[in-house]
Write a structure and sequence with these properties.
The complex is a heterodimer of chains A (about 375) and B (about 625).
Chain A (H helix, E strand, L loop, with lengths): L2 E6 L7 E2 L2 E5 H19 L5 E6 L3 E8 L2 H8 L10 H16 L6 E6 L10 H6 L10 E6 L8 H15 L1 E2 L10 H15 L3 E7 L2 E8 L5 E2 L8 E2 L4 E9 H4 L4 E9 L33 H12 L1 E8 L2 E9 L5 E8 L19 E4 L6 E3 L6 E3 L3
Parallel strand pairs in A: 1-4, 1-6, 6-7, 7-8, 9-13
Antiparallel strand pairs in A: 2-3, 4-5, 9-10, 10-14, 11-12, 13-15, 14-17, 15-16, 16-17, 19-20
Chain B lengths: L4 E7 L2 H5 L1 E4 L16 E3 H19 L5 E7 L4 E3 L9 H8 L11 H12 L14 E8 L4 H25 L7 E10 L11 E5 L4 E9 L3 H12 L2 E12 L7 E11 L1 H7 L7 E4 L6 E8 L11 E6 L1 E2 L5 H11 L4 E6 L5 E10 L2 E7 L25 H10 L1 E4 L7 H13 L10 H4 L1 H4 L2 H5 L6 H20 L16 H18 L4 H24 L22 E2 L2 E2 L2 H16 L4 H6 L8 H12 L1
Parallel strand pairs in B: 1-4, 1-6, 6-7, 7-9, 10-13
Antiparallel strand pairs in B: 2-3, 4-5, 8-9, 10-11, 11-15, 12-13, 13-16, 14-18, 16-17, 17-18, 20-21
Helix pairs in contact in B: 2-6, 4-5, 14-16, 15-16
The chains are: A alpha/beta (about 375), B alpha+beta (about 625).
């Protein structure tokens, strides 16, 4: 999911942290953000990040990109301006996200501030009390409060931001566990990474062949919005390939989400069981073997699917299935993608979208005959030759 | 919200059946030049046509979810259709409608309401088992006298509904109707100046009924019902413009046509979540609804691309019999896909939807057009395993072809586990690169060996074919033929004997992994036997010796074949003779004399001695 890091650049951020005399709240925020960026560049390499700063105005410092080093450099350029206008910042950031992403992608907004809520009628407290404030867009709101428990406004800030997270519908408030020090700030950002930026690692299994993989973006639990049941369906960490279909037969099914499959073989040994001469792999050369030269099952699968214009069907949970296919972004770069199919909800008559894949398949050999569409379901029926 | 069950109460009275509804446009030529009398369709015909069109649209778009029944309100009160999928089609209804006789009485709608409520409390084939909200619609169409008539019918409906629900609760049979939407549609002939029934809408919260009253001219009834079906089932109209079609008369030129289709509104709403500022809506001429305009995009779509679609819904063509509609339908049913584009503000265009046919039905797919976080990803060849160049792509493609999927048939039990089992068999002991596998390197010589071994069971012939492959390799080894292992880097430094040794080790591991039946064991045993023989030979001599036997012959038996009779060994001649004699003796009955004589020579004329003795005594 794209992430927007919004930093409070008001004068109140220049207050020195009481327990950490050498640091201001702003400098603590910058250090935390750098740690965050380092984590992203190591674990979520395809994450798109943007940086913005607000005080009485809202300015985009760095547009959405994967240039994490560039973002780190621009962090240094943020200068404190004047007062913090939270409502202005929130409304401007919403239009920015909408302009960039529309309604399709759910953005995550990391809103780093010192908890100051403004004064008088324009304060967030007043606005929330009089119901003058609401969110227009849907996004995951993650306020990060650099606030010491000894401060007077501590309780009010936490309460107000919790209320705002409720209004947003998604997200959570983060604050340091204990006094505001460099360690608590770092551990706070660490917690944010664990909750919202944990990479998905799993395995892809095709019979006896398997490989560890990671999915980008990490799949979110599917929430079914039927009128009788609101279930949240998790995915297992194993993609089990059931069989293969021609792309022409697949017919562009509606996908819940798409994820890039990134192969991550364990370093050193080949991970393919049944490799007859495994013992021949020299363990002395483990550390210096280039990752690119270790055979990867995903690369083989991708090449075969692309050459034969086929897709692989896989089971991702008890009643959830997906399609693995090769996708070319432009003519030169192609990748292995996982498309998650809508979970089957047989009881829900409101779900009138087609779930053409009756999830129980059996396999055929290619000498029975060709497949052709049948009238019964969107699906196919064997023609016996 | 779309209601699963709808019943049409069609008033077949003298008023509707005999009154002229709307005039039919006829071009008549009479010799005298006097225009002939105009022919008018009765109100009843207008009603039926409109209802069937309404039903057709519902059946096209929601074939297994929304059910419709008709009740023809006359003396016989004919019920048409059932709450199952088999009866929900235009042909079935038209066949049953042909049995409707001529009308002979006044409006009988009131008397048919109980039958309608009884039907609505029956579950459809989807609703059987399980508690669901039974929300239904009752559409009463006829020529009503006045507002009071309508109001009486409405009150009757509400009272009967109440009573019906109470009966269901006490008896426990049937589904209580939780919400009923009642629609009174008053149809009056075209020549009437003013309708006698006024339109209104009322909601009765306590009884959970919603009543709508409409009054429509017969000539306008079709258009009105179309607008009604859009509202009831949350459908949207889309016009596909700019479809190039060739004229029959002028085959060289093509003109652009428009085809209007209906589909669930959700197909557009998905798009609205993205960026739909440029979507153009126009009010259709003569109709009360708006239609969105999407332009046909010349299909250069390859069937081998997987487009990112967020949803797919069925469509219904509005004007089914028009030439452009049927042309587009046939084009789609032929397997081609059509992309639809939407103009964006700023002049550019965006592909927003796709029409394609699956299983004989036509669907509209909504494409995801918004920016994705997966834009510009690194190529897979830049990541792990990307620099390896000898993946066994063709061999894996063969596995993919063998493991293709097809729909479940009711005969199959646990098809998923069967599918997993098959793919596991095919990938047991399967090296993914050819640079480390001797078996992969020698695949031409291996022939069908790998294809056969992955099967569950082997036939006798297949076992022999596998054994033949093993013997071939043995023969090659004995002759000293080189193996085609140039791809294997580790093989370059090794001697030919080591190549064969590695090959046979790999074969053994492969066969052990696949030992799932007796026949597989036989093949493995054959390999082990060959290797043990070959192993002894090599140990004895130290060098491989050319064998004078043909390579195809089985290996020499170790022990000499010896035959004994008792303890003494006999010669081949004696043995053969013995066999021949035994065989011959089985063919005829033994002479009695021989049997009596036993082993030695049979003595002849035994009685002669005794007779001589007798004579000498006399």
């Amino acid at each position: 999911m794209p992430t927007l890091a919004v930093l409070d650049a008001s004068l109140s951020m220049l207050v020195t942290a009481s327990k950490e005399p050498g640091e201001t709240k702003l400098s603590l925020a910058l250090q935390g953000l750098k740690k965050f960026l380092t984590h992203i560049s190591q674990c979520n390499k395809l994450e798109l990040l943007s940086l913005a700063a607000f005080s009485s105005s809202f300015d985009v410092v760095f547009p959405f990109s994967r240039d994490y080093d560039g973002i780190k450099r621009h962090l240094e350029t943020i200068e404190p301006c004047d007062v913090s206008c939270i409502s202005v910042a929130l409304s401007r950031l919403q239009s920015y996200i909408y302009h960039e992403w529309g309604h399709a992608e759910n953005c995550q907004v990391i809103f780093i501030t010192d908890g100051s809520l403004g004064f008088g009628r324009n304060s967030m407290v007043a606005k929330l009390a009089s119901n003058q404030f609401s969110f227009n867009e849907s996004f995951c709101f993650i306020p990060v409060l650099l606030i010491d428990p000894s401060e007077v406004t501590y309780a009010t800030s936490i309460r107000t931001y919790n209320r705002m997270v409720e209004l947003a519908g998604q997200g959570a408030v983060f604050s340091p566990n204990g006094d505001l020090t460099i360690d608590t700030v770092m551990s706070m950002f660490h917690r944010i990474c664990e909750v919202y930026y944990a990479p998905f690692t799993g395995t892809i299994t095709c019979g006896c062949l398997s490989e560890t993989i990671s999915l980008c973006p990490p799949p979110q639990p599917a929430v079914l919005s039927s009128d009788t049941v609101g279930r949240s369906l998790q995915m297992s960490s194993n993609l089990k390939v059931i069989g293969f279909v021609q792309l022409a037969d697949l017919g562009n099914p509606p996908l819940l989400s798409r994820h890039l499959i990134v192969p991550r073989p364990e370093s050193g040994l080949s991970v393919v069981p049944g490799d007859a001469l495994k013992s021949e792999a020299s363990t002395d050369e483990d550390l210096s073997i280039d990752e690119g030269k270790i055979p990867s099952f995903c690369v083989l699968l991708h090449a075969s699917l692309k050459v034969k214009n086929m897709a692989a069907f896989c089971q991702v949970a008890d009643d959830r299935f997906g399609v693995i296919f090769s996708r070319a972004d432009n003519k030169k770069k192609s990748n292995l993608m996982l498309g998650l199919l809508e979970p089957d909800v047989p009881d829900d008559v409101q779900m009138i979208m087609y779930h053409q894949f009756n999830f129980f398949f059996y396999q055929v050999t290619n000498n029975i005959g060709c497949l052709s569409p049948s009238r019964n379901t969107y699906g196919f029926q064997l023609l016996k030759t | 919200m779309s209601k699963a069950k709808t019943i049409f109460l069609l008033d077949h009275s003298t008023k509707t059946a005999l009154n002229p509804g709307s005039l039919v446009d006829l071009e008549t030529r009479s010799r005298t030049g006097i225009p002939t009398e105009n022919v008018a369709k009765p109100v009843w015909t207008c009603m039926l046509e409109a209802c069937l069109e309404y039903s057709r649209i519902v059946w096209d778009i929601y074939p297994n979810h929304c059910f419709i029944r008709y009740i023809i309100c006359d003396d016989d009160a004919l019920e048409i259709g059932l709450w199952d999928t088999a009866s929900q089609n235009v042909n079935h209804f038209m066949n049953l409608l042909s049995s409707v006789r001529s009308a002979s009485s006044d409006s009988m709608i009131g008397r048919c309401i109980p039958a309608a409520l009884d039907s609505l409390s029956e579950p459809t084939e989807n609703e059987k088992g399980g508690k669901i909200k039974n929300e239904c619609r009752l559409i009463c169409i006829g020529s009503f006298n006045d507002d009071k008539h309508v109001r009486n019918l409405e009150v009757m409906c509400q009272e009967l509904l109440n009573q019906k629900n109470r009966d269901i609760i006490t008896s426990g049979k049937g589904l209580a109707i939780t919400c009923l939407s009642i629609i009174f549609l008053n149809v009056y002939p075209d020549h009437f100046q003013v309708s006698k029934v006024s339109e209104m809408l009322c909601v009765d919260q306590s009884l959970q009924t919603y009543t709508d009253v409409y009054s429509v001219r017969a000539g306008n009834l079709s258009n009105f019902m179309t607008a009604l079906v859009l509202k009831h089932y949350n459908l949207t109209s889309t016009t596909v413009t700019g479809i190039p079609m060739k004229e029959e008369q002028n085959a060289s030129s093509s003109a652009n046509y428009d085809v209007e289709i209906f589909h669930p509104s959700a197909a557009m709403e998905e798009l609205i979540r993205g960026d739909v500022a440029g979507l153009v809506y126009a009010v259709k001429e003569g109709c009360e609804y708006r239609t969105a305009t999407l332009k046909w995009n010349t299909p250069r779509v390859s069937i081998n691309d997987l487009w990112y679609c967020s949803s797919a819904y069925r469509i219904a063509a509005v004007d089914v019999n028009s030439r452009p509609s049927s042309c587009l339908t046939n084009f789609l049913l032929g397997g081609r896909s059509v992309m639809l584009e939407m103009p964006k503000p700023g002049g550019s265009k965006m592909l927003s939807h796709m029409l394609s046919s699956h299983g004989g039905e036509i669907f509209i797919h909504t494409l995801v057009t918004t920016r994705s976080i997966l834009e510009d990803p690194p190529s897979i060849s830049e990541g792990a395993g990307g620099k390896v160049s000898d993946y066994r792509i063709d061999a894996f493609a063969e596995i993919m072809k063998s493991c293709r999927l097809a729909p479940f048939s009711s005969v199959e039990k646990e098809p998923l586990s069967k599918a997993y089992n098959k793919i596991e068999r095919y990938t047991t002991f399967w090296p993914i690169t050819s640079s480390k596998s001797y078996m992969a390197a020698c695949q031409n010589i291996m022939g069908i060996f790998p294809n056969v071994i992955v099967k569950e069971n082997l036939s006798e012939e297949e076992v022999n074919q596998c054994k033949q492959v093993i013997y071939n390799f043995m023969g090659m080894e004995n002759r000293g033929d080189p193996l085609p292992v140039s791809n294997i880097t580790s093989a370059r430094s090794k001697k030919r004997e080591e190549h064969y040794k590695n090959l046979f080790t790999e074969l053994e591991q492969y066969l052990r992994a696949h030992c799932r039946s007796k026949q597989h064991h036989r093949v493995l045993d054959c390999l082990l036997e060959c290797r043990s023989l070959a192993g002894e030979k090599i140990d004895e001599k130290g060098v491989i010796r050319a064998n004078t036997d043909s390579p195809a012959s089985p290996p020499l038996a170790k022990k000499a074949f010896a035959v004994t009779q008792g303890d003494k060994p006999i010669s081949l001649y004696d043995y053969w003779l013995k066999n021949v004699i035994e065989e011959q003796s089985n063919r005829r009955v033994e002479l009695v004399g021989r049997i009596k004589a036993g082993e030695g020579i049979a003595k002849l004329y035994q009685n002669l001695e005794s007779e001589r003795n007798l004579v000498s005594q006399l």
